[in-house]
User: Fold these one by one.
Assistant:
Number 1:
Amino acid sequence: MKRKKRLIFTVLAAAAALFSVTGCSVSTAEPEAAGTNPPAAGETAPAGTEQQKAEQTEFKFGKIDIPGKDGALCGAPIYIAYENGYFAEEGFDVTLISADFETRKIGLNNGTIPIVNGDFQFFPSIENGINVKVVDGLHEGCIKFAVRPDSDISTVEDLKGKKIGVDEIGGTPHQVASLWLENAGISADPADGEVTFLPYSDGNLEFEALASGEIDVAALWDPLGSIKEKAGEVKIIFDLGTDPFFKGKFCCFLYASEKVLNDNPEEVAALLRAYRKAQEWIYENPEGAVKKIISGNYASIEDEELAVELIKSYGYPSAAQHGEQWDETVEENVRYFVNGLSEIGYLESDPEQFAADIYQKVDVGAY
């Protein structure tokens, strides 16, 4: 019999508003290198760059903001779509912005942000009335849980009574940790007192808290966990890309504003084409993608070899994969996580109907 956990989402909503920090962030520092944002008025991009080409493009859909200054390596499709000019090719003058979970929800709901990436963290918000649809899958993996090298914590069962650091309450690492705990019979509801979640606005602060004993576990986006593991400073007890429950499933989906979907479905289709071009380019050019990400200061990593290894592990699809029942795969992943969240009482809706309601197939070739 599934346990009712609706209280946790009331707590999460309040906590997210109180502790709002950069969603998916691994550092409070925003990328400032060339390519992160379009040049200001009167400035000229270096000759021959994709950004210069973009400036010469007539933007069919005009200016839009996309959350994409988060420091997470797995945000690669956003960075590459921007750097390679795919957004511009599809008619968008894009500004990459920082936005926490609450800001993303508000922007999606009113249409000022047309699309974001995120995992199943949005599902309860959709059930509670936010007007958002899942429209595509983005990648696998990308979150790890780290402990001190001398820690006796090695399994999920060892987390009872422990303190877990996350980037924000209600964000993806927090939601992943909650599902991992609940599937093991440990309540993630703060009211039950079985675990404590503490938010940190910077991944490095989270590691300092781990080293000092302020927290027992650090739940983080790549690349910081992998960097620290390679340096021998932590050991990893959970990897989203290899854990049996999550392996082979999307870590992140693409969510579109229902308002934009209804008012201008052509815009959403064009955005998905840009993302898919980026995914396919990353699949073919993982080393090139890493060079662009590092040179543009999009993610906090200097180890190119490690970054390439991580990029490859995220399962970005090829052009052939996009053509092989891709939409059915996305829909199946949505059902999988809806059922998982329903089983532990995080969703109250009928799972089959809810999964059908929150996913919308977009024909990217119809426009």
Number 2:
Amino acid sequence: MIKNTENKDAQAQQETAAEKEQKVDKKAQKAAEKAEKAAEKENAKLNEKIAELEKELAAAKELAEKEKNDYLRLMADFENLRRHSAEDRINLIATASVDTIKGLLPVLDDCERAIEILSKSSDEAAKEGTNLIYNKLMAYLKTKGLEVIDAKGKKFDTDFHEAVAQFPVPEEDKKGLVFDVVTTGYTLNGNILRFAKVVVGI
């Protein structure tokens, strides 16, 4: 009888231990499920935050690219404006120079006529003074790019010469050549400023 009671107590203790173990397992399972749910929830929050940050990053990259393109376009526009301004300034200076030098050509013509007339005169002082003025003026204008078109005795060239008359010449090799220069022609920096008005031998 005592044995049976002991067996029953041992069995009851075993059942109680098994129940306790089962309860512990259930609690552990519930805790694990709870922790898993919490981790999933946290993971979802993190994924949401990552997606939000990626969206912000993409927007920031797009804005930076737009700003970069706007800056490059602005720099290109500024460079074009600067170049055009420089070209306009050079053209303005060149145009002003052309007009000024063109206005001085009649003075050179008058000096040449005076030198030609004075060559027949005995007034040495007048000859010397006129030559001095002409040479100084020519020297200054040459520094600005003015050059005399060499015409007399050269082959008639419509790029530099303008025929105002023809003159019969007996020599065959002088036909088509410039016989005389009526008005001196000039180039300015390689461009025609005034054609040389010439008489052509025929």
Number 3:
Amino acid sequence: MPRYMKYILITLLVIAIDQTSKLLVHKYMYLHQEIHVLGDWFRLHYLLNPGMAFGIKWNNEFGKLALTFFRIGAMVGIGVYLIRQSLRPVHGGFLVCLALIWGGAIGNVIDSTFYGVLLHNAPFDAVTPWFHGQVIDMLFFPIAEFYWPTWVPIVGGNYFLFFSPVFNIADSSIFLGVFFILIFQKRFFVHEQETQPAPVPAEAVKPEAPPASIGDSHESAATHPE
């Protein structure tokens, strides 16, 4: 079995988990419904995201279409890069991270490309449901929420929520892939560092003697007759 197949299986697993979670939320929850899974720390909150990851939006028609095609291009590029890298002596951990990123990218591309048609969740003003599907988000981890004391200047009495984005498995997979590449980059790319030739110190380089001219050869023969 080619080496890249096991990383493609990781990608397929990410896609399966991502799509299953989204379809279950779509079927069994209504929009904006919230379910407390672990108290107030972990909640399922059903949102439709017409834009980018973690709830970031791009509010214009051209932007949404461009974003979908950008996702498709990135999906193809990451897949080609993963397969090419798997044919080289590259660290397996780096390939796992690429597989996570690829799976997340494909998961969100499926939403953007098909959900407008299959789940009828395209924005009402979309010119076509194709490529205008909204991504289903549901993971919500409000780390801290409180009201500022009234004596605090400017923000006193206002509600504060730390880490408000709602995201999905695909977003998480992309984030973890990028995060671990940044954290373990020295370990992942140590092979390339070892194969680079070491620089030669300047003092170790000796200048070559200039070649003898024809006149020098004749002079040497004349002064040293046989």
Number 4:
Amino acid sequence: MFKTPLSSTPVTRRALLGTAALGTASMVLAGCTTSADRPPPELPAAPSEPPLSGYASMYGPIEDGGFQIPAVPIQKIDPQFLRQIVDDPTGQTPGTIVVDTTGHFLYLVRPGGQAIRYGVGLGRAGFEWSGNAVVQWKQKWPKWTPPDEMIARQPELKKYSAANGGMPGGLMNPLGARALYLFQNGQDTLYRLHGSPEWNSIGKSVSSGCVRLMNQDIIDLYDRVPQKTPVIVTANVGQPTVASTRFHRGEAIDAGVPQDAELLGPAD
């Protein structure tokens, strides 16, 4: 199936090919009544993949919060990882976020059997995680505080420890332009849906445990999550999912929620 940017409606390949076939049949029948010296009719051109209409502006440079986010070189990214509306493969309630760790996609389920699909980067081997949670807090240009386990492996990060105040938000901050903080049973899972300037990591498993999106995409997702939102992280999108009582833990990327984050609902 063709996938289109957010302003368009998906068009199936079957429909396009069916239309082309009808046109061809009509022209062949007409050819039966022509004189021998009339040139044969031209066959219609084969349908082509739809252009990335709108993606240049969707992933163009952004001025946000006093920071200049650079454009994403979309020509260097597999088109399947660009933001688009698709048929919902999850079967979840509208408003639910589903992260497909197999396909490296994040789905925001919409009414009418559709979903907005974003490409994501995930944790490398040994840092994968899965489970059910809710978006309890969110923040623009979040502070980053590496957890003690990460500092133990990378002592150079000690300057950003909780005791030292963390890393202020900015273009080089690992949480990017936005962060959505995942909680389960009222407790911080220490996992995040967050932005990243590393567009070339989308579609890969290279990060230290969280779900990263391109900054342009996390800004879009952030604005579509106005309230406490359920999140399912699974490798079985399209299959029945069972609520998990805990996360399958890898290693978290963050040590806590900044004090000025926005609370989206009471803790369970």
